[in-house]
């Protein structure tokens, strides 16, 4: 197990920055997400905007993590703006703050 990781670790890290390798995974994740899009309440802006932001930001930033982070940041903000802050689990607020800290202060 250790020898396998020792061999494949540098190999994977050498090619992981190549967009030709990361793009297919983004396409697969995007196509899997499209199956769940029909369950989004597009008439409720506080539900639709964070989902739209996640769907749009993943391919534009070439980062699944950034898309998810923007969703975790925007969802509680929309609920607070709408006055439905109790409808959001407290951990979502914690994750939203942590993701905002990550995007603002940590290099990507």
TrEMBL record:
Keywords: Membrane, Transmembrane, Transmembrane helix, Transport
Transmembrane segments: 7-29, 49-75, 87-106
Primary location: membrane
Domain of life per record: Bacteria
Location relative to the cell: Endomembrane system
Name assigned to this protein: Guanine permease
GO CC annotations on file: endomembrane system; plasma membrane
Membrane topology: Multi-pass membrane protein
InterPro entries named among the record's database cross-references: Azg-like, NCS2
One family name in Pfam for this protein: Xan_ur_permease
Native source species: Bacillus cereus
Keyword Ribosomal protein assigned: no
A single MF term (Gene Ontology): purine nucleobase transmembrane transporter activity
Family, per entry: Belongs to the nucleobase:cation symporter-2 (NCS2) (TC 2.A.40) family. Azg-like subfamily.
């Amino acid at each position: 197990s250790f020898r396998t990781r020792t061999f494949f670790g540098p190999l994977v890290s050498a090619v992981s920055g190549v967009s030709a390798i990361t793009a297919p995974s983004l396409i697969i994740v995007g196509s899997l997400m499209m199956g769940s899009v029909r369950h989004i309440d597009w008439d409720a802006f506080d539900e639709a905007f964070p989902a739209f932001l996640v769907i749009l930001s993943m391919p534009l930033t070439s980062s699944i993590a950034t898309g998810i982070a923007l969703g975790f940041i925007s969802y509680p903000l929309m609920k607070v703006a709408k006055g439905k802050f109790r409808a959001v689990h407290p951990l979502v607020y914690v994750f939203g703050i942590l993701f905002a800290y990550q995007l603002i202060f940590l290099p990507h």
